[in-house]
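Ticket #4471: structure export looks truncated?
Reporter: QA, pipeline team
Priority: medium

Steps to reproduce: submit the single chain below to the structure queue and open the exported record.
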Amino acid sequence: MNAIIVYWSKTGNTEKAAYAIQEGLEEAGADVVIRQLKKAKDAEDIDFFAYDLVCIGFPSYGWRPPSPVEKFLLNKFREYGDTGLVEVGAPRVPGRNVLIFCTYSGPHTGIREATPAVLYAGQFFEHLGFTIVGEWYVIGEFHGWDEGSTRGRLGDIRGRPNNEDLEKLRQDAVQLVKEIKKSEA
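Actual output as written to the record:
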């Protein structure tokens, strides 16, 4: 199995999650490429269809992916649409899977602040016929706003994602590879 992890991270929360996922995927035997996205053009050369598993990660910003991620996804969607790979009915493409992971602080309403961002990103891949094999939400400290990290619905989230959170991601990634291999056997 070959996989790519594309992530955008401003404060390091999503980057930590990306590397924990990479560890788990590799432990399970996947060949993994990891790419940090800083600007939409940083990953123009990526062909999602060249991978058995695409992992895309980002923080939730105002209930959406950050602008560079959104622009990246829109550009890729247009590119695939222009080549006829976006079809009416979005027929499934066998062996093409996507994991979306999102870091969030949720200082006001918790996970519900991240859910729309993940669902939004998922639509790009569903329109390509990819199977969404995971939507993972990772609690991350709200850097630069202590009150946002201590008084929200999630309680005190300073220092997260912590080692326990990252270990869970690693283990979940190992399990994900096993599940994908089993479903495609």
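Status: closed, not a bug. The export was complete when the record was re-opened. Leaving a note from the reviewer for reference: The chain has five helices and five strands.
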